[in-house]
Design the sequence.
């Protein structure tokens, strides 16, 4: 009988180890699933942020191109005005005398 008692104790201990391992495995799976869900949410949030930033960057590029165009046009106008000044011509067209007289 003493061997049977030892077998029962060994069996109970083995069962306890298996149940503990199964419980710990379930808990680890739950934590893993929770972490995965959390990471998925973070990734979705970051994607949304990045898409918003990409839109803003495109808008800023468009504004910068317009600014560069305006700057280039202003430089051309300034150069043309300088050329008119060097030629001795008027910087603004003058009205003919007849148009300037009141009727």
Sequence:
């Amino acid at each position: 009988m003493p061997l049977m008692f030892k077998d029962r104790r060994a069996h109970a201990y083995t069962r306890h180890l298996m149940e503990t391992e199964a419980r710990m495995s379930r808990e680890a799976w739950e934590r893993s699933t929770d972490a995965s869900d959390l990471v998925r949410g973070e990734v979705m949030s970051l994607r949304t942020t990045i898409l918003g930033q990409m839109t803003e960057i495109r808008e800023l590029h468009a504004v910068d191109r317009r600014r560069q165009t305006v700057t280039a046009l202003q430089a051309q106008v300034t150069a043309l005005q300088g050329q008119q000044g060097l030629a001795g011509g008027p910087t603004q067209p003058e009205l003919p005398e007849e148009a300037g007289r009141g009727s």
Remarks:
- The chain has two helices and no strands.
- Residues 6-81 form one domain.
- The radius of gyration is 42 Å.
